[in-house]
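The following record pairs a protein chain with its ligand, cytidine-5'-monophosphate.
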Amino acid sequence: MAKEKLIVALDVDTMEEVERYVSLLKDEVGMFKIGMQVYNSLGKEVVTRVKDLGGKIFLDLKLHDIPNTVAQATRVLTGLGVDIFNVHASGGEEMMKKAADAAREEAERLGITAPLVIAVTILTSLSDEDMKAIGYAEEPAQMVKKLGMLSKKAGLDGVVCSPLEATLIREACGVDFISVTPGVRPADADVADQKRIMTPKKAIAAGSHYLVVGRPITKADDPVQAARSIVKEMEEAYVN
Ligand code: C5P
């Protein structure tokens, strides 16, 4: 169902706001994204609270460290019972492989379902100039493709990318390799600070498996209605 593929970004400051949005939206969407802002201020309690309220979780902490440290952190996050979490692909193949292995081993040890482990390829905030300054030799699209393929080789389940790159990832890594895409805006929405955007229907048609949408839902006068109309736009892509 389309609604299972919609992830709401909970970029808020307080547990009360988290509780309000999860209670309102848990039957309308598939998952909630908890990022650095919320996790670093509220800690693992926020994960427990969202789960207690019946929400699934994409924990967006973008781990990037030496393989052993990432593997140990992965065990902790798997134990929290999150459904998806992510690492940076630029941490390298061994780091990603250790994370994927640790997630599966820890889930098996605990008797729970293993989380999907996905990789951030190239941050969509980086311009061509930024990429050159960092020292990347190739164009952003080439780097996304390269890092997507490396993530797959390391045994990861998918990547976070712009919906504009979802087709490229699908062609390079196959239809079962998941792409989770922020930068989605309904046709009539305020784009805010997002630059490279797609509508929900186009993002699904381009090959996105999960759409991440924040402010168009959380800042709407009626978040439930906003979520429903995005799901409706997604459904149009499956039908056509
Ligand atoms: O409010 P909005 O729909 O722009 O929220 C999108 C969410 O996805 C935010 O939490 C943002 O940090 C995240 N994100 C993004 N672009 C990326 C990676 C993550 O917008 N490349």
